[in-house]
Amino acid sequence: MVDGPILVVDFGTSTSAAALVSDRGVRLLKESGSGSYSWPSAVSLRDGQLLVGTAAERRKRADPPGYRAEFKRDLGQSAPVPLGEQLFAVRDLVAAMLAAFARHAADLHGGPVDRLLLTVPASYGDGDPRRAVMLEAGALAGFEEVELLAEPVAASLAPVAGAGFGPGDLVLVYDFGGGTFDTALVRFGAQGFAVAGHAALDDAGGRDIDALLSAHVLAIGGPDLSASLVPAEGDRLTRMRLAMQLGDFVRAAKHQLTDDTEVEDHVTAVAPALLLRRAELESLTAGVLARTVDCCRELLGRCGVRPAELTAVLVVGGTSRMPAVADAVGAAFGRPVRRPEDPDLAVVEGAAVLAGRDAPAGLDPEVKVPGRDELRWALPGGGRLVRTLAAAGQRFAPAASLAVARDGTGTRWRLLAPPYDGVLTGWATGPDRPVAAGQWLAATGPAPGVRYLLDEPQLVTELPGLGGAYLAAFTPAGTHLVTATATGVVLREAGTGRALRELAGHTTFLMEARFTADGHRLVTAGGTTARLWDVATGQRLLTLPHKGIVFDAAISPDERWMATAGGDDRAVVWDAATGRKRHTLRHRGQVRSVAFGPDGRELATADIDGVSVWDLQTGHLLRRFKRYLARRLLFSPAGDRIVSLHWPHFGSVVLDAHSGEPVVELRHRDAADRRGIVERGAFSPDGRWLAIATDDGVATVWDPATGERLMSITTRERVTSVSFSPDGSLLAVGAVTGRIWRIAS
C-alpha cells in the first residue's frame, strides 16, 4: 500500500511527464490542451500570469519575448530569465510547471497531493546547486516533501519490451534525452536494486543535435534560405519567429527520419523544398554519439565492470529513438540492446514503480545512552535522507517518526525515535543528503520532566539505625519514605533521611510495606496478619488475619481492594473499606506474592504452580503461566508485562501479561554461585527501568524491554528492597543501613 498519494514528475528539457501514484494505482497525467502525456517544457507570460505546456507553445509566435522553452538548461545560472517586461528566476519557471502538474493531480485524486518524486539528470550530483534549485521549486509549488531521483535509475525500473529484469541482472542504462545524456550501472537483487555508479554529459542531448541539423539545413539551403530565416536586418519579433520556424522544421524532420530514410519538405512556404537523408543525420551526430559511448565506457571502467558482464544495455529517452543509437551502442558493447515499452515515458513510469512500493516500514535507531544520544539507523547500503519530520528543539514521543529516508536498495523507511521521551537537539545532515553506513544523523537530549540515567550513581542520603532499613518505600509525593525495622515502620524525610516517628508495628518480622496511591495509608504484612495504617496519625485501620504466614500484601490502585498472600495456600481479596473477604483464591502451595494490575481489574499471584492471573470482579482464574516460579511479582505500569522475580533461582523473567511468553530474561548471577538470589524489585514510574535487589549486595537497574544491564549499585550488605522516587531520579536501596542514590539527571 502506498504511503499517501505521490506525484511523480520527469521534468525534461524539451518535454515533461507526470504520474499520480496512489492506492488506486498509477495514472499518467494527460495534458488537457493536447491530449498527450508529454507536456512541452515551456512557459509563456500573459497578463502577468505564467501559462505552461501546450498553452504556452500556442502563444510563442504571438508573443515571442514572453515565451521560453528548454529553460532546464538554465538551472545552473544565477541571472534571471526575461519574459516580456518581467524577470524570473529559473526556479520559479520550474515551480510553475510543477504547480500545473500538482493541480491536475489534485483533481484526479480528489484532494491535495503533498509528496513529489522529481527526476533529475545523473549529472546533478551531491552538492550540485541545481539539486537545491529543484528542491526549492518543489517547495514553491506547494509540496511538503520533495525527493530527487536520478533519471537513468528511474528508467531502469520502467516496463521493458519483452521479459523484464530480475535478480542478478546487471544493466547499463543509456538515457539520451532532450537536454542531457545520462548513464547508470544498475544491479538488480532480490530486495530491490543497487546503483553501482552513474555519469552524465550536460551538453549532449536532442537540443544539441537540433543545433547541428539547423546548421546543416542553412548550409544546404544556400544564401537565400539563410537570408530569409536569419536576416541581418528586420524587427526583433520577426527574427524570433523565424528562428522558431526553423527549430520546428528541424525537430519534425529529425523525428520523421526515425522511421523514414529521407524527408523532403519546405522550411517556409516560399523556400524551395529540401531533401534530408538519414545518412546525413547520422554523419552529423556521429561525434555526439561517440561522446555518449565514451561516457559509458568511463563509467564501466570506474566501476570495474567489463562489457561482457552486462546483461543488457537499456536505451531510453526521446533521442534514443534514432536508429543510429541502437547501432552504435550494440557495436560498442556487444550486448543485447533493450528498450522500454515507451522510451519517452520510461523515466516517469520507472519512478512511478519505485513510488508504488513506498509503504515505509519503521526503522529503530541504535541507542547507546538514553537522553544524550547520537542516533544512527542501519540503512542497508547507506542511503539518502528524504525528509525530516521533527525540527531541532522539538519534543518527541517514544518510537515517533523523526524522518524519512531511502536506502541503497530503493526501499523507503520511517526513521523512528528511541523508546523514550526526548528532545531532538539537531540533525547532522539535511534532506537530499547522502547517508553513509554507520553515520549518525540526529542528536537527542532530555525532555523536560524526563529523567535519564547518570554514568555513575551518586549517594544522597544514608538511613542508619532504628533497627535497620531493609524495606524502603517512597511516598507517592516523594517527600517522605518509610523504612521497616524488624517489627515496625519508621517515617522519614526523603531529603535528609531524618526519622520523624515510628508507627506501631507487628509482633513479628515484617515482610512488606507499601503506600496507597494517595500516600495517606500504608499496607504492611508480617506474621499471620496484614494491616492498613493511617500514616498521619499512626492509627491501625484494619487487621486482616491468615491461618499461615502472610508473605505479601498489596492494595489496588483505586484503593478498593486489598490482597494478601499466605502460607496457608491461599490468596485472599479483601474489601479495603470494611476488611470483609471478597474472594479466597486457592493454590497448590504457599502463595508468595500478590500484585494488582494498574487498572485494578486483575490480580497476579505466585505459588509453586507458577504465575496465576485472576479476575477481581468474579474471582475466576483467567490464565496460568506454569513455567515460571516467583518469589515476588511486579506488574509494569502499563499493565502489559509481569515480572517474575527469582526464576528459577538466580534470575528474573519479564513476561507478556496476556500470553505468558517470555520477553526477556535477566540473569543476576551464575547458578554455580549460590549467591545472587532475588529479594525484591520495582519499576520506575514510567516503566522504562526495572530495579532488582539481590542478596549478594547489589541493586541493579535493567532495561525491561531489552534485558540490558544499565546500572549496578554495590554495597557490603544484603540488599533487600528497592524503591524509585516518583520522578524516577532517586533509588532507595534497603539494607541494614539503607541508602538513597541519585541515579538519573
What can you see in these coordinates?
- With 745 residues, this protein is an alpha+beta fold.
- Helices cover 19% and strands 39% of the residues.
- It contains nine helices and 55 strands.
- Strands 1, 2, 3, 4, 10 and 11 form a six-stranded mixed β-sheet that branches. A five-stranded mixed β-sheet has the order 14-13-12-17-18. It has a five-stranded mixed β-sheet with strand order 19-24-23-21-26, with no helix packed on it.
- Strand 47 (651-656) and strand 48 (662-667) form a beta hairpin.
- Helix 7 (278-303) runs parallel beside helix 8 (323-333).
- The longest helix is centred in the middle third of the chain and has 26 residues, at 278-303.
- The protein is elongated, with a radius of gyration of 38 Å.
- The two termini are 43 Å apart.
- The model is unreliable at 670-674 (pLDDT under 50).
Layout of secondary structure:
Layout: E1 6-11, E2 15-22, E3 25-28, E4 39-40, E5 42-46, E6 49-52, H1 54-57, E7 67-69, E8 81-83, E9 86-88, H2 90-109, E10 115-120, H3 129-140, E11 145-150, H4 151-156, E12 170-176, E13 181-189, E14 192-201, H5 206-229, H6 236-259, E15 262-266, E16 273-277, H7 278-303, E17 312-316, H8 323-333, E18 337-338, H9 346-356, E19 361-363, E20 374-375, E21 383-388, E22 395-396, E23 401-407, E24 412-416, E25 422-427, E26 433-435, E27 442-445, E28 453-463, E29 471-474, E30 480-484, E31 489-493, E32 499-503, E33 510-515, E34 521-526, E35 529-534, E36 540-545, E37 550-555, E38 561-566, E39 570-575, E40 581-586, E41 593-596, E42 602-607, E43 610-615, E44 621-625, E45 632-635, E46 641-645, E47 651-656, E48 662-667, E49 678-683, E50 690-694, E51 698-702, E52 709-714, E53 721-724, E54 730-734, E55 738-744
Parallel strand pairs: 1-10, 10-11, 12-17, 17-18, 19-24
Antiparallel strand pairs: 1-2, 2-3, 2-4, 5-6, 5-7, 8-9, 12-13, 13-14, 15-16, 20-27, 21-23, 21-26, 22-25, 23-24, 25-27, 28-55, 29-30, 30-31, 31-32, 33-34, 34-35, 35-36, 37-38, 38-39, 39-40, 41-42, 42-43, 43-44, 45-46, 46-47, 47-48, 49-50, 50-51, 51-52, 53-54, 54-55
Helix pairs in contact: 2-3, 5-6, 5-7, 7-8
